[in-house]
Amino acid sequence: MIVLGVESSCDETGLALYDTERGLLAHALHSQIAMHQEYGGVVPELASRDHIRRAIPLLKETLKQAEVSSADIDAIAFTQGPGLAGALLVGASVACGLGLAWDKPVLGVHHLEGHLLSPLLASEPPEFPFIALLVSGGHTQLMRVDGVGRYELLGETLDDAAGEAFDKSAKLLGLGYPGGPAISRLAEFGDPGVYKLPRPMLHSKNFDFSFSGLKTAVLTVVKQQTTNICEQDKANIARAFVDAIVEVLVAKCMNALKHSGLKRLVIAGGVGANKQLREALNAAAAKRRYRVFYPELEFCTDNGAMIAFAGAMRLQQNHEAAQKNYAFGVRPRWPLDELRPD
């Protein structure tokens, strides 16, 4: 079974073809980072318009890479939510338009389920059950995963997501957009312990997160500088910020594993590509004989491959999950724990 995946939830347009027998056949991705940089963040209207321009050329590229035609495709999966409403509508309309034109069934996929299952695309995928940390610009959640659609929310951020805290703190340091990778790179040149930043909810007796206060603490440190901040000071602040957020994420993950009795941890979402987070998680897991699984780096951020794969997994469980019903809708807000196995 070959599934075409369409991703357009935010500022990446991704298309991919996944075959349940041969694996990932092809994928193509366009990032809008360069377009949004001058605005310091994603402009929803511009994002939607760019998805319209990119979708069909990327579709042609994907079909050419895979050396398949529309006749070979069995179903089309698209990101139905959560995400930016206008951006989601573009992907939904493209998928349903193709479904109507090609007489193929379509299936709406949860964006976070795509991220959650993306490590299963790796050469050594994890087995169910496992604990998953979904960590991105819009979400920070700990889940217990017992199978496709079998998700139990253990904890989530009460305010800012980890990726959002990365971006906002980077902006305070004048690092531009996207801030997450920039502050992570700068932190490598910082000296540990120069600045002390809080570890919000580190010792709480639950699995929830809070990063708004950490961002405010960065702002306070920046304002305390009486002169222009030199590059070394910026690096030291970046190091303090990264150390704080990584310590909280690692501690919560280890606590969740201990509480559940499970030995496997999956990291998904854009922040999962963070070098410092990966190093700290690997070290902490090794001490406790846990295993940590990550998506391939190219699949940490939004992409069509994870949507095609999630759609294929859904269809393997229920062949009627995709329908020839092209009156599409999107869900900009859609809690992951509302999903069911079929």
User: For the record, what is the CATH homologous superfamily label of the largest domain?
Assistant: ATPase, nucleotide binding domain
The number of domains: 2
- Which band does the percent of strand residues land in? 15-25%
The general outline is globular
CATH topology of the largest domain: Nucleotidyltransferase, domain 5
Number of DSSP-assigned strands? 10
Q: Tally the helices: what do you get?
A: 10
Detail the poorly predicted runs.
Answer: none
Rg over alpha carbons: 20 Å
What is the first-to-last residue Cα distance?
18 Å
CATH architecture of the largest domain: 2-Layer Sandwich
Layout of strands and helices, then pairs:
Elements: E1 2-7, E2 12-19, E3 23-31, H1 33-36, H2 44-66, E4 75-81, H3 85-102, E5 106-110, H4 111-117, E6 130-135, E7 140-147, E8 150-156, H5 162-172, H6 179-187, H7 212-224, H8 231-260, E9 264-268, H9 275-288, E10 291-293, H10 304-317
Parallel strand pairs: 1-4, 4-5, 6-9, 9-10
Antiparallel strand pairs: 1-2, 2-3, 6-7, 7-8
Helix pairs in contact: 2-3, 4-10, 5-6, 5-7, 5-8, 6-8, 7-8, 8-9
Characterise the protein shown here:
The chain is of the alpha/beta class and 342 residues long. It folds into two domains: 2-117 and 301-338, Nucleotidyltransferase, domain 5 (2-Layer Sandwich); 127-294, ATPase, nucleotide binding domain (Nucleotidyltransferase, domain 5, 2-Layer Sandwich), CATH 3.30.420.40. It contains ten helices and ten strands. The chain has helices at residues 33-36, 44-66, 85-102, 111-117, 162-172, 179-187, 212-224, 231-260, 275-288, 304-317; strands spanning 2-7, 12-19, 23-31, 75-81, 106-110, 130-135, 140-147, 150-156, 264-268, 291-293. It has a five-stranded mixed β-sheet with strand order 3-2-1-4-5, with helices on both faces. It is globular and about 65 Å long. The two termini are 18 Å apart.
